[in-house]
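To assess whether ligand presence alters the predicted conformation, the chain was also submitted together with iron/sulfur cluster. Input:
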Amino acid sequence: TEPLLKVENLKKHFPITGGILGRPVSSVKAVDGVSFTVNKGETLGIVGESGCGKSTTGRMLMRLIDPSEGKVTFEDRELTSLSNSEMRKIRREIQMVFQDPYASLNPRHTVEKILEEPLKVHGMGSAKERRERVHELLNIVGLSSYHAKRYPHQFSGGQRQRIGIARALMTKPKLIIADEPVSALDVSIQSQVLNLMQDLQKEFELTYIFIAHDLGVVRHISDRVGVMYLGKMVELSDSENLYEEPLHPYTQALLSAVPIPDPDFKRETQLLQGDIPSPSNPPSGCTFHTRCPFATDVCKEKVPEFKEHQPGHYVACHLY
Ligand code: SF4
Ligand code: MG
């Protein structure tokens, strides 16, 4: 395994201003010290409830949001130190697929124009070559040349996400960051889009970061999965270990909410209690202590370190 992307201690703190002078009075720790590596050709799933910082993390990797602190290294380039124009060139190699393809596709542009756009932005190909690539990509994602002159509203949700995926592939990227790419789709369509993404990964040797709010969606597509809670990664492991032997009480709770297809398989149901606390006023110590059935006094005082408990299996919890 060869790392493609390395993320070290990534943080995003948004200031909260207050008082008559509008000075920063505190900050929301949207992402608070996240570290992980993504290897070439793998899919890393990143899972957590809304507000856990998973989308902000995804956007910081492409510098669509600038990090407050930390390092992102893509191959041998440290993205956090690049100028905007240098960063623009890198975006050819890192592309994003968004949750709501309708919101991310310009409704006044034909599919042809939408797909051509990334090539124009990066000055790639002649007009003829660009058009050929559009038609090639439409076929690759299961649409056809016949769709090139149509507008986004003329497609179903699933077809629109195929267009979003085609657009991400136009510049032949190495890494795709997919932020809840199937969450807005009907369950019956979700698996078609997931299968397409898996086929494309094999065919074009893509590396994926797949962001989702539930562990069920990423199970079959991910080689490794990271679980986030209130701006921190609380567990990271290869998928098999994470699903068979989750260590963190939060992961255990998330998993007990996932339907289990095998009726002989019994997992103690342990539903999440309480609401997710506000990231502007997170609990002390382990931020999960307000919802954790195993919390003790030390959990309220001391922040658990993110440690390698077994080879390749990381967890941030005082139980280990
Ligand atoms: Fe629960 Fe304590 Fe572990 Fe946090 S550190 S998850 S509160 S047992
Ligand atoms: Mg999100």
